[in-house]
Structure formats: C-alpha cells, structure tokens
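User: quick one, fold this
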Amino acid sequence: MAIKRRNKRFHPEIPVSSMSDIMFFLFLFFLIISTLANPNVIKLTLPKADSTETTKKDHLSLSVTNDKRYFLNKDEIDFASLEQELAARTAAAGDNVVVIRIPADLQVQDLVDLMQIGVKLKLNFVIATARQ
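Assistant:
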C-alpha cells in the first residue's frame, strides 16, 4: 500500500489578526499618557522643598520668568494689568487659589509684590516648588 501525497503546497502565513488589538492598546496608552503631561510649558527653575504635597485640582497658574515676564497659564500679561486679569480670571473660574511658579534666583521683593496683589484680591497663593 502506497501513501498518496496531496498536491497542496505549503504557504507560509503570518497571523495578523491580533495586530489590530495591539495597535489599539498602544494608541490608547499614548493617548492617556499625553493627557497627563503638564500643560504649563514655561520652563523655570523652581525652588526646592522637602514636602511632596500636591494639589488635586487645576488652579490658575501665575508664572514669572527670570526677565520678569508674567504669564497667567500660558498667556503673557504685563505687570500693570496683572491685578485686573487675576481678578477677572479667578472670578470667572470660581476658584480663588493661584499657583505661583517663580524662579528660585529671583528677588524676594518680586514675590512680595505678587503676594500683595493676592492679599488685596483675597486670593490664596500657593508657591510651586521642585522636589529635592
């Protein structure tokens, strides 16, 4: 008795059915990671602190650069109109907490000037620091 061979040729295949699932999970991963990035793109060298307490809400951010340019979130504001703009934006947001991002090597008087505006408007200022 002879064994019959079938004339079927072997065609190598690569299973790609799970490739779409993998691509979907990678897309989802990068989408989630990109939303966790900090929206403030103004680079500052913040003062160092031992505390690791963080805020749990997105508050209005006031950033000051080394050349004394003022930014509310990402919008540049001159110092003369800073008080009016702070009052308007905190009233619109209904949040009286402002996170100050000021460089570590800036003068203390610049910070005091900002704090006086906060006292006048009855705002709660929080100074952002970098972890040691």
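User: anything notable?
Assistant: The beta strands are 48-49, 60-64, 70-72, 75-77, 97-101, 124-127, 130-131.
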